[in-house]
Amino acid sequence: MSTTATSGPAAAAAPRGPKPRRLSVARIGLYGFLIISALFFLVPLYIMVVTSLKTMPEIRQGHLFGLPETWTVQPWIDAWMHACTGRDCNGLSPGFWNSVKITVPSVFISIVIASINGYALSFWRYRGANLFFGLLVFGAFVPYQVVIYPLIIALREVHLFSTLWGIIIVHTIFGMPILTILYRNYYAAIPSELFKAARIDGAGFWQIFVRIMLPMSVPITIVAIILQVTGIWNDFLFGVIFAGRNNWPMTVQLNNIVNTTTGTRTYNVDMAATIITAAVPLIIYFISGRWFVRGIAAGAVKG
To answer: So what's the pLDDT on residue 144?
Structure first.
């Protein structure tokens, strides 16, 4: 009975060949590389965190890696509410809300437009679609520094330079090419029979997009959100040029705090301000990181 049971399909499906060793030179090298890579990113973060929780007299002692002898969160409070960003001493809180007002509309508008573009390029082939897609690919790799001055002139002519909507338009324009490519590749991997069946049932452009494509677009939308939030929230150049003084984002405020030369340089406040500025993209990535990998893999199946 046992011989018969093991000689069937189960035996044919059983793995063959020598059992891999538990520890090999390649495995040791891989683990060593991963540990070194983790330390490369975690050691600076550790230094930033412990420095932000120390008092200035303790920082001046030079014990960079040592834990705080006296734990304090006052540098975090000062970074958020009292640090000077030039003439104003209101901390990072105004810059935080400016970054929110810039990031949320820019991410939403760019994702909506890019998803529609990718859907149309994948299923509704119109005259000149390949040319349009080629221009988008070209625009995704054009260095944005070369078009800053023309954008300044264009926004000045329509009275949007140094305004909130001006910086939102700039981020939307520069985010659309790469997002359109992502959505186009993602939708191209969806079986065309699904689209044809919807067309036979009488569904139109928007019905197919809203009822079929959008519910299936959660992974790639998470990827788009992570890319856009990270890029827009961490942006400095566009913010300092196009936003205007009243709309300066958090990164510009952080630069002003760190580069302040009057009085005593408070390294604990600088470190706390840096961590607060980087917290939003990190939180978003840790919450939705598994969707990021899934969406990238799904969009890379078919070009």
So the answer is: 79
Helix (H/G/I), strand (E/B), else coil: 85: strand
- Position 1: which residue type? M
For domain 93-299, the CATH class is mainly alpha
Instruction: Give CA 260 to chain center in angstroms.
Output: 28
E-strand stretches of 146-279: none
CA gap 48, 190 in Å, rounded: 45
CB 185 within 8 A of CB 300: yes
**What is the rounded distance in angstroms from the CA atom of residue 303 to the CA atom of residue 296?**
12
Q: Are 166 and 155 in contact (CB under 8 A)?
A: yes
Helix axes 93-123, 164-188, angle to 10 degrees: 40
Output the pLDDT for position 106: 93
Rounded to a whole number of angstroms, the distance between the first and last alpha carbons of the chain is: 52
Please state the φ and ψ torsions of residue 234, each to the nearest 5 degrees: -85, 0
For the whole model, what pTM was predicted? 0.78
Q: What is the sign of the dihedral through the CA atoms of 79, 91, 284 and 242?
A: negative
Report, as ranges of residue numbers, the positions in the chain whose pLDDT lies below 50: 1-11, 300-303
Which is nearest to 209 in space by CA: 123, 303, 125, 298?
123
Q: Is 273 exposed, middle or buried (0-12, 13-18, 19+ CB in 10 A)?
A: buried
**What are the extents of the domains in the chain?**
93-299
